[in-house]
Amino acid sequence: MRIFKLIFKNALRHKLRTFLTILGMAIAVMAFGVLRTVVDMYYEGLEATAANRLITRQAVSYIFPLPYSYRDQIAKIPGVETVSFANWFGGTYIDKKNFFARMGVDAETIFDVYPECQIAPKEYEAFKNERNACVVGSEIAKQYGFKIGDIVHIDGDIYPGNWEFVVRGIYTPRDKSTDATQMFFHWAAIDERMKQEMPSRAGQVGWYIIKIKDPAQAAAISEQIDALFQNSSNATKTETERAFTQGFIAGFSSLLNAMNFVAYIIIGIIMLILGNTMIMSARERTREYAVLKTLGFTGGHLFGLIFGESMFISGLGAAVGLLVTYPVVSGIDALMPKGFFPYFFITPFTVILAIIAALTVGVAASVFPVQRALRTKIVDGLRFIG
Amino acid sequence: MSNSIIQVQNVSKSYWRDSFEVPVLNDISLEVQEGEFLGLMGPSGSGKTTLLNLIAGIDRPSKGVLLVGGTDVAKLSESALAKWRSRHVGFVFQFYNLLPVLTAFENVELPLLLTSLSKAERKKHVELVLNVVGLGDRMFHYPKQLSGGQEQRVAIARAIVTDPTILVADEPTGDLDRHSAEEVLTLLERLNTEFKKTIVMVTHDPHAAEKATRRLHLDKGELS
Q1: Minimal CA–CA distance to A34: which of A383, A350, A305?
Q2: Residue A47, Cβ neighbours under 10 Å: how many?
Q3: What is the pLDDT averaged over residues B17-25?
Q4: pTM, full prediction
Q5: Which residues of chain B are within 8 Å of residue A298 when distances are taken between CB atoms?
Q6: ipTM of this complex prediction, to 2 decimal places
């Protein structure tokens, strides 16, 4: 027999109590993992940003459009390689709950500025050559069963009316952080209809996406762009794509902070659960620890027994919790509209955080029982009636 | 005397209860010879168990010198004392104090985990002592599957498995029926006569004390 066997046997002495503690740990670790994943996924958008992309939007807010005429002026600025643009289209695909990003884009340049969205050249050509064509991300193609040649009906809201687009391409993500839940169609198709039905809204784009040659020139080029339109009725704000995304996330900062707070509160709760179990166990074994000391076991041995048991329970709880977190996160991913979180997966950092949390809980939960076991004199321990 | 294995010299022990000093042992002196079976008798509260605990090195005297096998036990640090106990003292408790999650074999093996013996050597030692106490066929039984007498015999096996210098027993028959008590006393007697173990036994049972080769009475912290 080894000490490990004694730790194991001690841990399973009260099977129901240990089982419930492990279950509590597992649920808490799972809840921690899911909450952290939600927070991570908000920030994951930053990972998808490129250093050589700038976003130019209306200075007041990104909900206001910019004139299409800015395009050529921006393109003339030294260091600018490609100028593309997009419009948030909105609309409804069959039902409001079928949410995914639908955007009118510049068909000629969009895949040049977003090389991480990979499309077969033949499909891209077909998209460019047909005014009412669209390209969908592989994730939403999978979710809604879109195939090449399918007609997608969109009920417009920002751009009222019925819209029909033919799927001519399906792009796939190059990286894990690439959003494969978007639908792109020709901005020109929208603009054409606006000219006929709502002329005041024609010639407008949502934002410009600017690919630059040298990321080190991002600040200088941004300044030049904004200087160009400084005194116009549509002043611009240009920033790196990362800064733009960060600004977008900042809008949710209170919610994200609250979620983070709750995640760490959960760790505190599991610390109390395990701590309570360990205190009860160690108290019940006061006499046994005294007997072990009588036999010659030292404080170090008792520390090992109690600490080992605490770590065993917390480790097992964390392992079960993490194992459960994966299918839970996958389930959430499957149930959630694809466009809400373009990607939803457990990051290695979350796994590491959960493991560190479990280890911390294991250590913290053993502090008081160890202290008590070491402080109790043998003669007092032998007299103890639990 | 040259072959005294335990020398208690003017030992006093008192406890503090809140701000009150409660004297338990008062200037006790005694010697135990190697191979002796000493019975310590006395009424409850006379200090028998306290004296036994001092001899076993699980408590420290307030005054005086206590030498066991030539070692001044009171001068050892906590860790050195723990190591000393594991090598020199076998302890038999009134309530057996076996670990309920371990089998008889594992309980007896516990003190050997602190030695450098290999698994095979430990097994050999454990089997040997369990056979000595007559429980060779109960090795893999848990304490709850044993009778009180059998549990106490496992506890004795655990106490002798490391071949300690002295064996101390605190009311070893106090929780047993007459028949089981007789078995345990016979076993202790055999360990003393056949295996030459030095035994110090605390008891208030005159019948149990009869097994000892020498009997001392303790009353109100003083030997008589």
Answers
A1: A350
A2: 15
A3: 86
A4: 0.72
A5: 78-79, 82-83
A6: 0.92
